[in-house]
Amino acid sequence: MYTSLLVRYGEISLKGNNRPYFEDKLLDNMRRALADLPPHKMRKTFGRIFVELYDDLETVSRRLRRVFGIVSLSPVVTAPLELAAIKEKALAVLADTPGTTFKVQTQRPNKHFPLTSPQVNQELGAYLLSHSPKRRVDVHHPDCYIYVEIRDEGAYIFSRTIPGPGGLPVGVTGRGLLLISGGIDSPVAGYMGMKRGLELTALHFYSFPFTSERSKEKVLDLCRVLAGYGGPLRLVIAPFTNIQKAIRQYSPQEFYVTIMRRMMFRIAQAVAEQEGALALLTGESLGQVASQTLQSMAVINQVVDLPVLRPLVAWDKSEIIEVSRRIGTYDISIRPYEDCCTLFVPRHPATRPSLARVAAAEENLAVAELVKECLGNLEILAVEPEASM
Ligand code: ATP
Ligand code: MG
User: Fold this and answer.
1) Is 254 near ligand 1, meaning CB less than 6 Å away?
2) Which of 12, 157, 218, 302 is the most buried (most CB within 10 A)?
């Protein structure tokens, strides 16, 4: 019955001169989200986008609900500019809408249409009422609205509004490099970064054989979920075994984690440069663990010049878990495979590492050589969205 999907996008319309760029990006991303379906016609008008439907409302709306920048979606029925046709279509929309009481709400940008908006409301209300014996009109607190928009090219009728994810179209704010572990937090950080328009490259440090092939598969699966929101992405796997061995051998236990993170950041900065990423993203949240105190973050940050974005810095674990469940990463994140970091966490990590002492401890390590060796052995995987999405 529904002929198209009306797509509303909010924030992009506020961005002045950037608007056409943002809109084009949004359209590109919408097309990409539907790429494996027959091509859908999309039309941009009056700050909204209409997507013509085949018989695939559920699939198309499920896909578009993941496209950042979209505020909401409504399945709409179109009718020619004749009252009889509008009545008939409105009745079909009402039949498809739950609720006992309803209200018709008309907008009429097309001033050539012979009836005013209140007249259309009245005519339609009366017609719908007489053809649906179980329904009543309630103009103050209706269970549902039947919206009618009378435009130059025809009338649009709809009742349902499906929320979109909001945010900005992926790609409009640049590229970020997401440091992704197999944990709960970093995939959520990646999601939040994409929500603000970042295109991601993911980077995972992998310590085979301390961590198994399964843990790599887990990260790949997490990236597939992220790709379901932001489109295909690159996953860079960085071999970390030798670095961890060296840290274990040559540095004091209390600094294992701090030095490990500094090594990760050094490598991440080099990978970011290769990938054209302008920032690093992590899943850190202030105070969550020893390496996430302000003192630790400062000492870790000191090895890079790029901004480090921590979208979850002020989130409680319970809030992070809630989002990870909603976006579909939680069940993957809780698979029991060890992360390279969990294996190496000493019993008493320094919560306030001093930069001078950490730097001194690092002098026992061949930092530059280890970084270079790792960068020379990167594995790069192209990740596509999960097929079932
Ligand atoms: P997460 O749930 O994301 O693993 P966490 O609370 O377990 O986070 P840490 O293990 O201290 O925290 O890691 C902090 C951040 O460092 C992670 O959010 C992630 O961005 C990055 N990180 C940790 N381990 C790795 C790894 N093996 N590869 C890439 N990045 C990592
Ligand atoms: Mg972790």
Assistant:
1) no
2) 157
CB of 246 shorter than 6 A to ligand 1: no
Q: How far is the CA of 145 from the centre of ligand 2 (A)?
A: 47
Taking the C-alpha atoms of residue 157 and residue 101, their distance in angstroms, rounded to an integer, is 17
Q: How far is the CA of 122 from the centre of ligand 2 (A)?
A: 60
4-163 and 175-383 agree in CATH topology = no
* One pLDDT digit (tens) per residue for the chain, 389 residues: 999 999 999 765 555 677 888 899 999 999 999 998 999 999 988 789 999 999 899 999 999 999 999 999 999 999 999 999 999 999 999 999 999 999 999 999 999 999 999 999 999 999 999 999 999 999 999 999 999 999 999 999 999 999 999 999 999 999 999 999 999 999 999 999 999 999 999 999 999 888 888 899 999 999 999 999 999 999 999 999 999 999 999 999 999 999 999 999 999 999 999 999 999 999 999 987 777 889 999 999 999 999 999 999 999 999 999 999 999 999 999 998 666 556 566 777 888 888 999 999 999 999 999 999 999 999 999 999 986 66
Alpha carbon nearest to ligand 1 atom 17, residue? 283
Can you tell me the distance from the alpha carbon of 288 to that of 62, in angstroms, rounded to the nearest whole number?
Answer: 34
Report the candidate in 301, 291, 2 with the shortest Cα–Cα distance to residue 156: 2
Structural domain boundaries in the chain: 4-163, 175-383
CATH hierarchy code of domain 175-383: 3.40.50.620
Query: What CATH architecture is 4-163?
Result: 2-Layer Sandwich (3.30)
Measured distance CA(257)–CA(41) in Å, rounded: 52
Beta strands in 193-304 (DSSP E): 198-206, 233-239, 279-281
